[in-house]
Write a structure and sequence with these properties.
The protein is mostly helical. The chain has one domain. Helices cover 59% and strands 6% of the residues. Strand 4 and strand 5 form a beta hairpin. Helix 4 runs antiparallel to helix 11, helix 7 packs across helix 13 and helix 8 runs parallel beside helix 11. It is globular and about 70 Å long. The two termini are 41 Å apart. The relative contact order is 0.15. The model has no long low-confidence stretch (mean pLDDT 87).
């Protein structure tokens, strides 16, 4: 909003030009979201207390668990508001990447809010039926996948020699001139490409999956791509939801992932950095740094109240939205194949539940008695059962998350 306002005013207002810089607007988004989450957050917590929107805790035999009974939930409203408001203020609102992220935030935030509302106000511990959650996640996956695949503004560019550029249609080539006069000729590409980590020639075209069925089969690549996007959004949003089990765990690990994606988005949207790092240049994606700055500030601000001992829980309102946003960000910067590394915490938490349930059912069928691999799932509860304090579990998970984030950034050059 402010970007468009100062763009309309033009150079007549001193200092207005600073809004042309993504770095400035991203920094302002971080600062504003921190202010909103810290100042407004306490007001929302007080409101939730007055409305008696408290967490209902099942006794699972975990240390300190029953003390959390009645702690306000639905605190994800703090994260959502502290993300959306700065984005509306400082981002280019006609940027297709920003539009998709706002849609993802509101879409999954609404699904999570309905789930929390049913649990708290309708006194139904099951919350929103699982099939409706899945339908919502699939619906968002279709929107994101179809838009990324078909929207004309979502392209990648690759540098070509001047001799090659002269032989191409001028409308397909963008010329970028540096301050020293160096010219770069960038060929526009509308391809369903992504990045394979740890590989030298690391671009992967989804159409190659159908290549074995002949050239004509490639016209259905959009089906494969949308299915992949649906799977990623569903898996990561559920992973964040499962990880949200102890104070500060989902918030802190999400902040680490978001910061990493912010770095990847910034370098992917800058032609100079993209050329230097020999990575895919995605025009317009640099604007994602503004949204990411807002989300990062919102997570850190929320952590003020969510760190042990938590004064508020984010509930599904926050966890589903956080996971969906992280998945959407990875897809938009063409780093979705990096998710198993970057979102390793979410992946392990998800797998611990799948393995526990599968093994229990298998042993019950074979031996007549269900057996467990972990003391309890998800994995963080296993460590709680071993007597490790939850604050130490969270700190160690954060450390692992930082290591995975560093490894994800290192993949820019490690091939």
């Amino acid at each position: 909003m402010l970007y468009h306002l100062f763009e309309a005013i033009g150079p007549s207002l001193p200092g207005a030009g600073v809004f042309n810089y993504i770095s400035f607007r991203a920094a302002m988004a971080v600062f504003t979201s921190l202010l909103i989450s810290l100042w407004w957050g306490q007001g929302i917590i007080n409101l939730l207390r007055r409305m008696q929107v408290g967490e209902t805790v099942r006794d699972l035999g975990l240390e300190g668990q029953l003390q959390k009974q009645g702690t306000p939930t639905m605190g994800g409203l703090i994260i959502l508001s502290a993300t959306i408001i700065p984005t509306l203020l400082f981002a280019k609102l006609n940027n297709i990447y920003i539009i998709l992220l706002l849609v993802s935030t509101v879409w999954l935030g609404t699904i999570g809010f309905l789930d929390d509302y049913i649990k708290v106000f309708k006194k139904d511990k099951r919350g929103l039926a699982g099939k409706f959650k899945v339908v919502g996640q699939v619906g968002l996956g279709i929107i994101i996948g179809a838009t990324v695949y078909f929207h004309p503004e979502i392209r990648t560019r690759v540098e070509v020699p001047a001799s090659v550029a002269q032989q191409l249609d001028p409308s397909e080539v963008n010329t970028i001139t540096e301050e020293d006069g160096t010219m770069h000729f960038m060929l526009n590409r509308k391809l369903p490409n992504t990045t394979i980590p740890f590989i030298k020639d690391n671009e992967f075209n989804y159409s190659s999956i159908l290549g074995v069925f002949g050239r004509e089969a490639r016209q259905y690549t959009w089906v494969i791509y949308i299915l992949v996007v649906i799977f990623i959004i569903t898996a990561v949003s559920n992973g964040a939801n499962i990880t949200d089990g102890v104070d500060g765990l989902a918030t802190g690990t999400s902040a680490i992932m978001v910061m990493t994606l912010g770095i990847l988005a910034y370098v992917s949207g800058n032609v100079i950095f993209a050329q230097y790092l020999d990575i895919m240049y995605i025009p317009g994606s640099g604007e994602l740094a503004v949204f990411i700055g807002a989300l990062l500030g919102a997570c850190i601000g929320f952590l003020w109240y969510n760190a042990y001992p938590a004064q508020v829980f984010m509930g599904d309102t926050g966890s589903l939205a956080l996971g969906g946003i992280i998945a959407t960000l990875a897809i938009l910067v063409r780093k979705e194949l990096l998710i198993p590394v970057l979102c390793g915490i979410f992946l392990v938490e998800n797998l611990s539940v799948v393995v526990q349930v599968s093994y229990f059912k298998y042993t019950k069928k074979k031996y007549g008695e269900g057996r467990r691999i972990f003391l309890m799932s998800p994995l963080h509860h296993h460590f709680q059962k071993k007597g490790i304090h939850e604050s130490k579990i969270v700190s160690r998970f954060w450390i692992v998350g930082i290591m995975l984030a560093v490894l994800s950034i290192v993949t820019l050059k490690l091939r």
